[in-house]
Structure formats: structure tokens, C-alpha cells
Amino acid sequence: MKRIAMLGSGFIGRFYADSLQGQRSKDKIIMVYSRREEAAKKFADDYKCDHYTLDMEEAIAHVDVDVVCISLPNNLHEAAVMLCCKHKKAVITTKPLGRNAAEAKRMLLAVEEAGIFNGYLEDLVYTPKFLKAYESVKNGALGRILWAKSRETHPGPHSDWFWNIEQAGGGCILDLGCHCVEITRTFIGKDIKPIEVMCWADTQVKPIDAEDHAIGLIKYENGAIAQFEVSWTFRGGLDLRDEVMGTEGTIWINNFLRTGLEMFTTGKGADYVAEKAESNSGWLFPVGDEINDLGYNHMFAEMFNCMENGTAPRETFYDGYVVNAVLDAAYKSAKTKLWEPVQLEIWRGQEGLSKESHLVEYDAEHYLIKEEMTHYGAKKVIIKHKQTGKIEEKIIE
Ligand SMILES: NC(=O)c1ccc[n+]([C@@H]2O[C@H](COP(=O)([O-])OP(=O)(O)OC[C@H]3O[C@@H](n4cnc5c(N)ncnc54)[C@H](O)[C@@H]3O)[C@@H](O)[C@H]2O)c1
Fold this sequence. Notes:
By secondary structure, the chain is an alpha/beta fold.
């Protein structure tokens, strides 16, 4: 059993608590830190925590606390991590790790120096649908991965600090793009280096300094490309979709809208439908079990198992740092309108890869371009002569 201090009692702190203490979990939140006494006390009552405090260091340093879970605004992650290092407490933190790669790098180096367990809570690479898709990708069901796309769009975040560029560190690129980068990076291969980013970003709707809509491309060293689409101005709920395309197959994932559960109601008795659903009447798309379907259960199970076994989880501060470095390049590209290199001062994956061969042999003289069964019953192959380059088609009887 691990005894947890929860830092922050807001939106994600409560989702995490529902997951950590849901089902028959043996782990327990014994301490909560929040800014306001009523919020801290309410959280402590709701989740039966032994202690609450308005002093962050007191929460972390408490002798009964084994693990600290950071659920605070982005500008407070670094200070909280440094206190965990000081008091040698295992730390797991929500996304994004830092407001930029410089902050993330400092946190990564500090936890490694302190020798403490560190986990990056990127729940969207632990959803049941993602895990199934990823297993298929790893087993080669899609062949060589060429393109991975992730989209997270919704009508905008739920607390004031997200809209303040100083506290949040950015707009939807940082807030939602961090998920998309890690999802697509995992499909392409976490040991494949992201090298360049091209990004369009704009503030189309909201009266804020940060971007409320962006689209980006991330080039990987092996020739694969990732794409992210993020928005705080999307109407219609929370759209969470991933697509992966490989030489042998395709995967489409829809995590939140049109997941197979569709309901019509005039609105009587339907208050909460799903995160950021904009309506509680008409045709609705409730989510079966948000805590599970968003990956929180699988994520915490893996994190805590690793903590007990003394192994690193799949998502560590290193991953959080790589994500921040990619997003820094996206911000730069949105300004310069150029492909910008990803500045990875720390890189632990493969180096110097080149684009893999894409040629398929047809026979000794030819490469295969395409084969197809036509509606008129003929099977065609289109081939290219290796020496002359001539392209021709043949009907196979
Ligand atoms: N799916 C996800 O992984 C996910 C979803 C939502 C939020 N988050 C992340 O969780 C973190 C917290 O976001 P949230 O949605 O829970 O925010 P929130 O506003 O709902 O809660 C923030 C909590 O931090 C506390 N806090 C302490 N000092 C504060 C300060 N100076 N200003 C504001 N709050 C302060 C508040 O009391 C509150 O309990 C952010 O880093 C965010 O990116 C992750």
C-alpha cells in the first residue's frame, strides 16, 4: 500500500482521486494540499484523507507520505517537484511536465539526481483503446508506421489560470498538444527522434494572449510524420481522436464522441453527460466510464506497480521533457512560419536513422507498385522495371 499526498484538489485532482481510490484500490490519499481551506477540507472529507493543509511543503514532507501526486496549475509543477526532491518523495505529475523544455529539463535532472521514482501522468497513452491499438502496432499489424495523427479539441478549459499565459505557459498547443505529441510519438516509436516541427497557430476566438487553435506536423528521423490538431474553440464537446497509418494497415480511434453509446433526451434528469459536453438534451454521446476510458485506471495501476517493483514506468519525466521540447519547436515555428528543429539536449533513443527502404520486390527485374482486383473480375498488378524505371500493368489470369 502506498500513502499519497495529493497536491491540488481541483478538476484533475478529483479525477485522479476517483481512480486511485476507486474499485478496490489498496492505495490511499492520506493528505491533500489546496489553496483554500474549504476546498482542502471538502476534498479531505470526500476522499477520507487523514490530513489537509494549505502549506505545500508540509503536505510533501509529512512522515506518512510515500508518494506525491502533482495536480496543480502548470506554473507550480517545478516548485512542487523540487520539494519532492528535497524530501526524497516519489513523485508523479500531471501533464504538461513543464511550461517549456527548460523547466522540464530542470525537473528531469533534479529527480534523477535525487534518485526518486518519477512518473509522467499522460493518461491518454493508457486508454483501453490506445493500449489495444498500440499492441497491434507493436506486433506489426500496421507494418511500418508512416503517419500518426491525434486530435484534441474542446470549447476551452474550466479554470481561470489556464487562460493566463504566464501561469499556463501557453494556450491549446501546450495544454492539449502535449497529449497529442505523446500519443503520436508512442505509435511512431519512442526511441525515434523527433527532428523538426511546422506549426500554424492563431487566436481565432477568445480574448487571450495565447493561441486558441493550432495544427502542427512533427517530422521523425526515420521519415515518419506526426500531426496534431488542437483547439479551445471547438463546439460540440470533447473530440479525442487518433489515427495511425502504416504500410500494412490503419487504425482509427474515437475516444469520446460517437463511441458507440448514443442517447436522446429532452433534458430531464441529465445534468453531467461527459467532460466538456456542451449540452444535456437532444442527441448525446455519454462516455461509459470516463475514469477508465480516459486511461486513469490503467495508468495508475502501472505507475504503482512499477513503484513497488522498483522499475521505471512507461511514462517518466524524460518523456515529459521530450514532449515539452517538441512543443517549444511548435511555438517557435508558429512565429517564424518555418520548419523548426527540435532542440533535445537530452536524447536517449536511436541516433542517425535514415528513411527505411520502401521498395517491395515483384520479381528479379521489377518492384511492385500496386495490385488490385477490379469490379470486372481482372486482377491487375502495376510494376516498375528496376533498371529502366518503366511502369507497366499486367492482368493476372
Ligand atoms: N487529462 C489530464 O491529464 C489533465 C486534465 C486536466 C488538467 N490537467 C492538468 O492538471 C493540472 C491542474 O489542472 P486542473 O484542471 O485540475 O485545475 P483546477 O483549476 O481545477 O485545480 C487547480 C488546483 O490547484 C490549486 N492551486 C494551488 N495554487 C494555485 C494557484 N496559484 N492558482 C490556481 N490554483 C492553485 C487549486 O486550489 C486547485 O485545487 C494542470 O497542470 C493541468 O494541465 C491534466
